[in-house]
Amino acid sequence: MCGIVASCRCPSLSQHLQHGLDAIKHRGPDGSGTWVSQDGSIGLGHCRLSINDLSPLGAQPIHNADSIHAVVNGEIYDFDRLRDICASEHGYRFTGHSDSELVVALYQIHGAPGLFEHLRGEFAFVLVDQRPGSQRVIAVRDRFGIKPLVWTTVGDRVVLAAEAKALKPLGWQPEWDVQSITDSGWLVDERTVFKNVQSVKPGHWMEITDGRGIQMHQYWDADFPDKTIVETRTIEEMVQGVRERLINAVRLRMRADVPIGVYLSGGIDSSAIAGIVTHLARTENVKIGSDKATQVACFSVQFPEASGYDESDIADRTANWLGIEIHRHNADEQRLADDFVDAAYHNEQHHMDLNSVAKFALSSLPQQQGLKVVLTGEGSDEHFGGYAFLTHQYLYEPDLAMPNILADDTKLRGDRAEMSHSIEARTPFLDHSLTEYVNSLPPSTKLSAPRRAIVEKWILREAVRPFVTDEVYRRRKRLLTREAVEELGFVDYAVVEAALESAFGETPDQVAFRTLNYTGGWVAIGQRLGVKKATVEESNWSWV
Ligand SMILES: Nc1ncnc2c1ncn2[C@@H]1O[C@H](COP(=O)(O)OP(=O)(O)OP(=O)(O)O)[C@@H](O)[C@H]1O
Ligand SMILES: NC(=O)CC[C@H](N)C(=O)O
């Protein structure tokens, strides 16, 4: 993934664009280029982390013979097939072999918004159409907001970039947006922590024309079918449906002209990715990126054992089972403290925990090994029912909250942690063809109770079972553990244990279910707010 900057309506642009690119060189250390329109009013800049077509023909900005210019950050998957269609059915003549050139080709063939439905992957791009009669600039962001794209105005200019720091050489003067910080606007809407700097929203595109100024349009949204309609697919068909789509999402993301690695934790998501990559390489001879790699390299963060967060022993056993190598980063307190400032600078926002700092440091490992791309398990929890605190919503009104949760991927996790060390993170779980299928599944398949206990991400566990260890398959992130319930101070765990036995199954006990629902809510709130353990003597409360 690369860095892009763009500016519309500005004299003497070229130098400013280059300085903007210098500020985000970590996003693209392999080369850089700028383009300024003949009248000097519009400019594009790109710094490249070259992944597909490493030759100069893959350099950007991209131009075609028809006065269309673009800078593209990210990856368009399935591009070999799409390029063939553009060439054979539409006679489009490509100059190089990068996936990014496809954006210009598809725009010329289908226009906007027509091209968006053909784009699969994570991307942010700015495209300038100078054809007589259709002059405009468009700025586009992928469906889940995996790749960042921010913009502001400086005088009468619109300036855009992958990271806000690149806007400074283009004239932006940073100011805090205290309102956005206090009302969490930076997280839930298009605002950032900086005044007047906005993100282009996921699944949206911005259109800038002389006549109409700036217009925002949406081209995609998560779609949730009516789940009161009786499901006709069998469980096995649905498990198979998830498996096929996930395998395909991974397969498409193994295509690169550079080697690819995997971020591996002890959880089911990254373990499944590592397992599927290994399976495809061994049984179908799918290349892991370029020819160089014969087996996938995994990268793992090891936390101090006393922290209670360390899962590296599980990751080790997975790597052992798959016969793959594992590289480890030790994230002890000192390392986290050392990396805090750099991680915050790259993230350009605050975070609730130190995960982003650990992942910032983790990305130095693949860089040291000469890798440019890693696959990660991000995005699974939101789609497969991995957040136990949403239990009741899945069961009653399953998915109404989902679009909001998925508001903007870079705000929750970011690609910044990886890009800080020039690493592109690919997220197969955020393949829209997979998520559209998963959204169509009955909620009960995500949070099933086959043995009278809630099993988060049930259908995912079944779908990836052939690719993960039994340990990972059976491992649960349980909300209602004895420890968590006892920490409330006013709930008797024996009651919860009994309720777990009777709340599910063919003849569920409604009262037991309600007990679990209440207790689950208290545990979630208690953990999130750090609520002090209650003492029963404080009130007239008798044990629940
Ligand atoms: N300790 C770690 N070491 C290596 N990679 C990690 C680690 N923690 C998280 N990651 C990477 O970041 C992704 C998202 O992390 P998150 O904490 O959201 O985990 P998760 O949803 O529980 O996923 P998983 O099931 O893979 O642990 C993981 O899928 C993995 O690719
Ligand atoms: N790093 C990027 O954003 C990559 C752009 C393009 N996919 C390439 O391979 O060059």
TrEMBL record:
Residues at which ATP binds:
V301
Entry-linked SUPFAM superfamilies: Adenine nucleotide alpha hydrolases-like, N-terminal nucleophile aminohydrolases (Ntn hydrolases)
One GO biological-process annotation of the entry reads: asparagine biosynthetic process
> What keywords does the record list, in alphabetical order?
Amino-acid biosynthesis, Asparagine biosynthesis, ATP-binding, Glutamine amidotransferase, Nucleotide-binding
Residues with site note (Important for beta-aspartyl-AMP intermediate formation):
E378
Q: What positions constitute the catalytic site?
A: C2 (for gatase activity)
List the Gene3D superfamilies hit by this protein, alphabetically. Glutamine Phosphoribosylpyrophosphate, subunit 1, domain 1 (3.60.20.10), HUPs (3.40.50.620)
One Gene Ontology MF term: ATP binding
Domain of life per record: Eukaryota
InterPro entries, per this entry?
A: Asn_synth_AEB, Asn_synthase, ASN_synthetase/amidase, AsnB_N, GATase_2_dom, Ntn_hydrolases_N, Rossmann-like_a/b/a_fold
Q: Which family does it belong to?
A: Belongs to the asparagine synthetase family.
Write the protein's name.
Answer: Asparagine synthase domain-containing protein
Q: Which organism is it from?
A: Hirsutella rhossiliensis
